[in-house]
Amino acid sequence: MRQRFGRRSRQMGFDAERCLNVGNDMVSNAPRNCRVGVDIGGTFTDIALDLDGVLHSTKVLTDYAAPERAILKGVASVAEMAGIALSEIDLLIHGTTLATNALIERRGARTAFVTTEGFRDTLEMRTENRFEQYDLNIALPPALIARADRFTVRERMNAAGKVLLALDDASVEAVVSAIAAGGYESVAIGFIHAYANGAHEAAVRDAILERLPHLSVSISSEVSPQMREFERFNTVCANAYVKPAIKSYLDRLVISLKDIGVRCPVFMIHSGGGIVSVESASEFPVRLVESGPAGGAIFAADIARRHGLDTVLSFDMGGTTAKICLIENQVPKTAKTFEVARTYRFRKGSGMPISIPVVEMVEIGAGGGSIASVDGMRQIRVGPHSAASEPGPACYQRGGKNPTVTDADLILGKLDPNNFAGGAIPLSAAASRQAMVDDIGTVIGLDPDAAAYGTCEMVDENMANAGRVHTVENGKNIADFTMITFGGAGPLHAARLCEKMGISTFLVPAGAGVGSAIGFLRAPFGYESVRSAVFNLSNFDFAEANRLVDAMQAEALGFVEGGLDRGAPVIERTLFMRYAGQGWDIPVPLDAKKFDTDSTRMLAAQFETEYERFFGRAIEGLDIEIVSWSVKASSPLPPVDRVAAVDEGSVVTPAKTRRLFEASQGAFLDAGIHERDGLKPGDVVKGPAIVVERETSTMLTAAFKAIVQSDGCLLVTRT
Amino acid sequence: MNQSMIDIHMQVMWNRLISVVEEQAQTLIRTAFSTSVREAGDLSAGVFDLEGRMLAQAVTGTPGHVNAMAESVAHFIRDIGPDNIFEGDVYITNDPWKGTGHLHDITVVTPSFHHGKLVGYFASTPHVVDVGGRGFGPDAREVYEEGLFIPIMKFFERGDLNRTLIHIVRNNVRENDKVVGDFHALAACNETGHRRLIDMLTEFNLEDLSMIGGFILKHSREATLERLRNLPHGSWSYSLDLDGYDEPVHLAAKLTIGPEGVLVDFDGTSGMSKFGINVPLVYAKAYACYGIKCVVAPEIPNNAASLAPFDVAAPEGCILNAKRPAPVAVRHVLGHFVPDLVLGALHQALPGQVPAEGASALWNLHMSVRPVADQIGGKGAEILMFNSGGSGARTALDGLNATAFPSGVHTMPIEATENVGPVIIWRKELREGSGGAGAHRGGLGQMIEIEAAEGYSFRFSAMFDRLNHPARGRDGGLDGAPGGVALDDGTALKGKGLQFVPEGRRLVLSLPGGGGYGTPADRPADAVAHDVKHGYITEEQAALYGKAGGKA
């Protein structure tokens, strides 16, 4: 199997090389600007190079033993394509799933956790909740740090950050000795209310480093100064757990890049969608978790800028999962916390919480490889189990016997059996039909076409429901959004999804196969500082609030310095507010630079406006509180050229047609088949139709037509 | 479209209807003021047809609402009167016998109109912060002392707010802003459900819910009956002894499984208590049904048809069939033991599938914190915490440490609790050695220590059980540790009722562990050694396993 993969990768590497001109046509002889984005994913390492607006890209197989080897190979290859020397690269931006994988696979450093006496088991007790109500045999995910490796010291802060119990030197001494004896590589420290006052955490860190200077120590008041002890403790433990491996990897990467002649600085993309230095990333590696998917959202945000779209939903559907992100005013929406490594059907609560700023994505266990089956209610269910790429869908004929979404797509005519992945993988419709009959047809009496239709309807319905709930949670109406779709399966399902969600327009960008790597190139230098601190508007201490915001701004700016050749930083401040007594806070953008005596009235008015937008009506006479604070500093994005409008040209007559199932009519129709490379700006393709390219195909239902844009995007609208 | 296409279409609509009620529930979680709703998921939401039959229900933290709420809508239709139902109406009650078992649960029902025609109802229920009376606790002698009783009535009529009702509520409850805020949150979440339903009917070109409702009920009934046909048929009995308030309580159940249904008969159960631990039958039924469903039909969604085959019987006046005006405020304590009761009977029918007994009842703690002297000027606070002991060992897995079962609620972060009011939680960690020994060990309970902040003292309402009746092991497994309630100076406190903790003293709660499953000698030596190394059991307890300290 490995042999075959090796062969495929060479072929893939060759075939997947692309040269794409995006927008900026003003290539001059002035000093050239060359930036490289590198995304390490589970299967492929994607490299994108932007030379004065012209993109080159390639894919190489990810090297698990030494990930930097694949990078060196890919960077050399893409530089050669662009015809430049490695020394001419000005900037390299990198994102990686290594931190995420280390958490999922539990391959991290031997780590000790030090916490407040009385709270040794917070990590293990979680929320005291079962994430699935009706399964008597669930297993909760084990704590990241086992009980024997969790130590306590006598100390205590109160909710206001005042010392209730002074740090007890004897207990600190005992813990330091235990850590010395335990052979640990890394230590996490998390104390109760340390988000309000981290002095005790810092003192214990100093005590450890004084005796054990070789240890790597992470403290919660720096890694994640947010209230909620389980989430914060877990976050600092995750940081400590991955830190030694990530630091060693990044050190090796920087040196080996220098060795082959790359002289530019290396920066990392973080989960919040900004860029930080390698040094910051080594110190706070938990911020690298989910940075790859963040790249996809930035990619979509960049397309939104170029097309002047303010209300966008990105839809990225791959082999195992689909991800949906809201992008408003061309900025991906971020959250203060998320969950990684879910262990039970992607169920909320079955993973581990990480409280850091993150591009907010809804992840659904729905991809091309998702397996369809019949449940006890004799209903078709799809996912979250996936046949992934090995053994893959039944139609790959590599040993997969279960029917998948890709099998359903093939049966319904959405895929060409002889032209999948550019013909690299021949598909067998007979195998797909057999799998559908075996697992679904004979169980509930459906023919393969109906079973395939049911499979696609269920997976599309699942994704549409998740998208709808997510937009509602953000106080929005999904029908107002424009979808930007990418990923291997996204463009195949987008049209039906839009029908279900009431969306009238979607865009399919060119170059979507390496979307995350391209997204890295479009990301700002940026860092978001998030802290919990409760302030009531009824007795608002504006001087204290100013001190807090100033400190956070200084922290955020500290991380973006060095990347600020693009001009003065953009500062965004957001307050998370609620009525006192509620549990759910909503983000309220803060316009004022300083708080003063007028602030209370202004903040209340702004909160009420936002509250009404979310929940319909404000409530009179209640006190309002600020719970958390965010200050984000980022470099201004360089201006982009708006994609020139194209005149709607003539309708292209397809060279060939194929039977394609039309879900809204419940019948097969003749659909035109178009090669995307053969289309030019202005061309119009009317559904039912398929636009085929190497990495994916765009399916148009009868209700849609596509107009090719000047940048190669397909703009698909309801007719 | 042929029949198979129509069936698939129906499945899609069923999924959508479930998504509609999940959205309804999410809206309530995000707008509610009640701590138990927003932090702990103590709520339910569902959609009903014209006859008041539930078609779909959101999966939330409260099995106790499963069919309690399911049955409530029929009461609303009857009491409001079919001719008196108008577009823009919203109805409300907290009748424990027509809602979900105590006055703290407010049920709000909204009729849903499409093209001017009534098509169905949305209902939702949370636990609110306060309903007046004595406050949340077991000490009342009659339901009249437990707070304001709102019979089924209109909260809005044709869009107009019932200001008289709000005026009465505002003048009878503590924290009235939050309570009235929750009333509005309930109306808003039903409204969200209604709007989504209308979107759905429009998209699928339907005039009403009759076709999709018929499909849901037919398939659910068939799937449930198929399960019942495949179960052993017959009758099995089990009983539990519990602490009660002032005297022990005996719960008894005879479980009869037949091809058409399951009946749980509580005959033999103790009579009513003089205090508020009594349970209306609707609530006992909900938990009986939940316990059985976990084993026989876990993935069949809750609706009128999937719940219909499960029924209960109890002599009138028994503690699981309390009648008005019995006090019922903390009906959850005994209610939470009903799954242990029915699972014990089910174990005999289906050996090897049912866990051992667990801590089961949540250790809810309601604290009223007050300044010790007026001149301090500090404000008091009402603080609610949900805490869980250990669950029973499973047939192939250890019990879950400090995890709620059968309740599905979350605990609150102690950092959030300390931000609500002047209390210090000094300790909240696993209680070592509290899980019952067995081939599979019972889950550990937890230790909690709480003190009022300097200058404050607090009263708390105890609603704790298993102090004298620990969770029993199964098939040779040993019992979990019993619970304990005391002050840090060693003063023992009661398991039920209002008590006082002076300034400077800590309340110490020892939450019970779960029972073990199977003979301890059958536990692998490396599992015993692991438990010793991590301190889940003591060296002495390791001897129970006959492994001499688990030296593996």
Automatic annotation (TrEMBL), chain B:
A GO term from the CC aspect: cytosol
Protein name: Hydantoinase B/oxoprolinase family protein
GO biological process: glutathione metabolic process
Annotated coiled-coil segments of the chain: none
Pfam families: Hydantoinase_B
Domain Hydantoinase B/oxoprolinase, chain residue ranges per copy: 8-520
GO MF term set: 5-oxoprolinase (ATP-hydrolyzing) activity
InterPro entries tied to this protein: Hydantoinase_B, Oxoprolinase-like
